[in-house]
TrEMBL record:
InterPro entries: P-loop_NTPase, Shikimate/glucono_kinase, Shikimate_kinase/TSH1, Shikimate_kinase_CS. Its cofactor is Mg(2+). Keywords: Amino-acid biosynthesis, Aromatic amino acid biosynthesis, ATP-binding, Cytoplasm, Kinase, Magnesium, Metal-binding, Nucleotide-binding, Transferase. Monomer. GO terms for molecular function: ATP binding; magnesium ion binding; shikimate kinase activity. This is Shikimate kinase. ATP binds at G11, S12, G13, K14, T15, T16, R115. It comes from Allisonella histaminiformans.
Length: 169
């Protein structure tokens, strides 16, 4: 059984919807960032204090390991698409959903100070979106528009997953 993989900007709803999909689909949920911290025995912030490359290397190891599992819902970090190897590993055994949330909503809702790459403020969110938008879209099998209520967006996700399973997987 293929994994369900959620990608998107920090604050787009990956973890929230990942947990909801896990309940609805009766599949285990794994937050890749939490898994990485547990696996590596250190925080993401400590990796970034060393260098972004140190974090991306650890993230790539984590993604490779998670992609080998079956039938789980994976919430990825916002920059997972920065490395082609991550996308290839996730695609090998997964259906990739991009949660596309308007950047203005992210800026208004998310405590950017609590996110390592967003600590420089709201402009950084807009810059990251411009930098990653194409990679997100190119990586996704399905694009989910996160503009409705959580219930509407979850319904849209479930319908898209069921259609993909019915016709592709």
């Amino acid at each position: 059984m293929k994994n369900i993989v959620l990608i998107g900007m920090p604050g787009s709803g990956k973890t929230t919807f990942g947990r909801a999909l896990s309940r609805e689909l009766n599949r285990p949920f794994v937050d890749a960032d939490d898994y990485l911290e547990e696996r590596e025995g250190r925080t993401i912030s400590s990796f970034f204090a060393e260098s972004e490359k140190a974090f991306r290397d650890a993230e790539e190891r984590t993604i490779r390991e998670l992609a080998d599992r079956q039938g789980i819902v994976i919430s990825t970090g916002g920059g997972v698409v920065k490395r082609t190897a991550n996308v290839e590993n996730l695609r090998r055994n997964g259906l990739i959903l991009l949660i596309d949330r308007p950047v203005d909503d992210i800026v208004n809702d998310v405590e950017v100070e609590s996110r390592p790459l967003l600590k420089d403020g709201p402009q950084k969110v807009f810059d990251l979106y411009r930098e990653r938008r194409k990679a997100y879209r190119d990586s996704a099998d399905i694009i989910i528009d996160n503009r409705g209520t959580p219930e509407e967006v979850l319904g849209q996700m479930l319908e898209a997953i069921h259609q993909a399973i019915k016709y592709k997987i």
